[in-house]
Amino acid sequence: MPVTPSHDRHLLAARSQPRVTFPHPEMLDLGDFPTSAESGVFQASSEELNFNIFHLTNDNINYLKDKAKGNNVNSRVTGFNVVTALIWRCKALSFSPPDPNRSSTILYAVDIRSRLSPPLPRSYAGNAVLTAYATAKCEVLEKGSFARLVEIVTEGAKRMNDEYARSIIDWGELHSGFPNGEVLVSSWWRLGFEEVEYPWGKPRYCCPVVYHRKDIILLFPPLGGGDGINVIVALPPKEMEKFKTLFYEFLI
């Protein structure tokens, strides 16, 4: 059934009297830094980076879900949250030099369409995502239960209700800045680009362009629409070796 796209950008505008009602550690205020300051996860790295694609099969993802449920077998755990928790653990613990007391923050996009009150119309065209975050000490990431890590990631998404989303939007009205964390997970996993029907047929493959940034990790479907998910990671050589070891050891 044809749908008339909604382009009403006022639906995501700041309130007429901006009100920042929550602390937003996931946002970096550029007014607090000189103009030459590093730009967090959006800063291209000048380091030598190795690129690697890690494949998780459906069996791997189900294994992570079972590990996250623990004794609570009836709990609902999403594939995205378990994959994000695994990536977070591997990325934080690959950091050199290791420091168990260091805090690590992971960022990930949350679709706010259904989280607003009232929700955005189904016909709303354009991005409606904000950055959720989760923070923990490296000691917790290394020695804590995987179920707890997944719970922390889940809590970050649940935090994104209507008032929290409006608070971030208002923060952006009052400050100049952008998301700030150790690593950002950007998911192309279920965007559905491969299902778009062009006059000449469906695309053979869709994936993001690789760029020279070590703090953005990308999730996307396997080539040919196979089972599971691909994770593309860019890290300095020594950190990549540590990430790879942690990643595959955790799946055993």
Automatic annotation (TrEMBL):
<dbReference type="InterPro" id="IPR050317">
    <property type="entry name" value="Plant_Fungal_Acyltransferase"/>
</dbReference>
<dbReference type="Pfam" id="PF02458">
    <property type="entry name" value="Transferase"/>
</dbReference>
<dbReference type="InterPro" id="IPR023213">
    <property type="entry name" value="CAT-like_dom_sf"/>
</dbReference>
<protein>
    <recommendedName>
        <fullName>Omega-hydroxypalmitate O-feruloyl transferase</fullName>
    </recommendedName>
</protein>
<comment type="similarity">
    <text>Belongs to the plant acyltransferase family.</text>
</comment>
